[in-house]
Write a structure and sequence with these properties.
Length: about 100
């Protein structure tokens, strides 16, 4: 029974959503920019699936807003994930 409770607790904790934080100069007039790109070494500590999912979402949002991805961008995106050391410490008492 304890194993089942532990399983459900772990499942519920793994379903938590990520917190997204942005850092940019709020005084920047992005209407002056037309081209963007992604920093080459994006997503340290992330797997390829997560990197692709995040960059695809940013790409689609920007291209729908009339920005163009280019090798000579006006601005770059860099992903810096901050992963928690532990979500919850659960004492394991397996029988």
């Amino acid at each position: 029974m304890k194993k089942l409770q532990l399983f459900f607790l772990t499942f519920l904790l793994s379903c938590s959503s990520a917190k997204v934080v942005t850092d940019y100069n709020e005084g920047t007039d992005f209407s002056k920019y037309k081209f963007f790109d992604f920093y080459e070494d994006n997503g340290e500590n992330l797997n390829e699936f997560d990197i692709k999912r995040i960059t695809d979402a940013i790409y689609h949002h920007l291209t729908n807003s009339a920005f163009i991805q280019s090798k000579t961008p006006g601005f770059l995106f860099i992903l810096i994930p901050k992963l928690p050391k532990t979500l919850v410490e659960i004492p394991l008492e397996l029988e």
